[in-house]
Amino acid sequence: MSNQQQTLHTYLELVNRYPSPHNGQPIRLKPLAEGRFEVYFERSRGLQLSEISYIFSFVSMGVFMRHLALCAEALGHSLDYELSLPKVTELRGEGPVRFAMATLQWDVGTADEALHKALQFRQTSRKKYHQGVTDEVAAAVVELAAKVHMKLTRLSAPQAKQAVWLNQRAVFDDMFDEPVRLELDHWLRYSQAEKQAKRDGLSYDCMELNGRSMKWIVAHPKILRAPGISWLLKQYYLRTMTDSSDVFYMLAPFRTERQSFDVGLTIMDMWTQISAQGYYLHPFGTIMSNQAAHRDFLELAGVHDESLAENYLVFIFRAGTSAPPVPSLRLDYTQHLLMEES
Ligand SMILES: Cc1cc2nc3c(=O)[nH]c(=O)nc-3n(C[C@H](O)[C@H](O)[C@H](O)COP(=O)(O)O)c2cc1C
Q1: Which residue's CA lies nearest to atom 19 of ligand 1?
Q2: Please, which pLDDT band fits residue 303 given cuts at 50, 70 and 90?
């Protein structure tokens, strides 16, 4: 491998760790000459159930572009990009849609070892958290969001408990929404063999669940409402959730494609900052997408003026310390992230 190939390899290995909903890995990069890459969103790898799922795809694009830039900074490169976001209606269907052009300049700065470590450390932890984040870390992420006019708030401990319960209720309820159940089934990986073969999606061990039971329940969701058993299943699901983590929620403008993209940038910045301090994070996306849970969460948090134009509930997560989570796999970058040169 030449030096130039090695530099690209190291960069793309790090880039390939970007987080995406359901670990769908929707982004593809097409290399052009002189460090330029066209950036595509593969529609069949995004969530595709409702208008809100489509607008969330722009969050995924923002998460990726910030991650791409942070990986460059960590390794001493620089990244510029120009956006050409499609309209939300163009995200229906299959196939790649171009949304940005990125230009990299290699080895123009000093590598940032601490940032590199934070990006390597970052994972979603669905384990039990031993403690939340310090007040300093909480204040720093709140400020980070405020700088870009987004409002991040930490819930009180009793509110956090209720939010965890709402998340559990929404996850169980979603099993009775047939399209949602089928989409989840498409992305769930129920065994080690399936996880290793597909290298994408949500695997049972990352979810801290038993693969066989998960498969059976997804195929027979009525069990979730069977007297007695329903209580047991709730306790099993909640065993890793009722803990000492801190729960945060973020309100932001969410009406346009660009506003949703910007939410993604901020999510990645917050996640990196939290990871840099040795904390993990777990998004509670189901509360946002499940209508009843969304409404009840706003009530719980005392938000009475939600609007897409100014302050929409865009992100909820718990954060804190936990044992290292089971790694979620990625498709090899040469086979997926990187498209054929043109
Ligand atoms: C915008 C966004 C929303 C997410 N929502 C959820 C969620 O609702 N529940 C969950 O368990 N994980 C959620 N995740 C985490 C992804 O499932 C996770 O990033 C992916 O499986 C890869 O795993 P890793 O973060 O450990 O690398 C979300 C990630 C992103 C970027």
Answers
A1: 19
A2: very high
- CA-nearest residue for atom 31, ligand 1, is 20
Distance of alpha carbon 26 from alpha carbon 161, whole angstroms: 33
The answer to whether residue 216 is domain-embedded is: yes
Q: Using CA atoms, how far apart are residues 288 and 53, in angstroms rounded to an integer? A: 10
Pocket residue to mutate for ligand 1, from 22, 71, 121, 124, most atoms within 8 A of Cβ: 124
Ligand 1 within 6 A of CB of 167: no
Same domain flag for 113 and 150: no
277 CA to centre of ligand 1 in angstroms: 19
- The pLDDT > 70 percentage for the chain reads 100
CB of 201 shorter than 6 A to ligand 1 = no
* Cα 20 to ligand 1 centroid, rounded to whole Å: 6
98 and 133 housed in the same domain = no
| Tokens describing residue 236 | 């099993």
Which 8-state DSSP code applies to residue 137?
Answer: H
Rounded Cα gap, residues 338 and 204, in angstroms: 27
> Which pLDDT score is estimated for 342?
64
Same domain, 242 and 223: yes
CATH of the domain at 214: 3.40.109.10
For residue 42, the enclosing domain spans: 3-121
Residue 339 lies in a domain: no
Our count of domains for the chain comes to 2
The pLDDT confidence band at residue 126, using thresholds 50, 70 and 90, is very high
Angle, helix 3-15 to helix 51-74, in steps of 10 degrees: 140
pTM of the shown model? 0.97
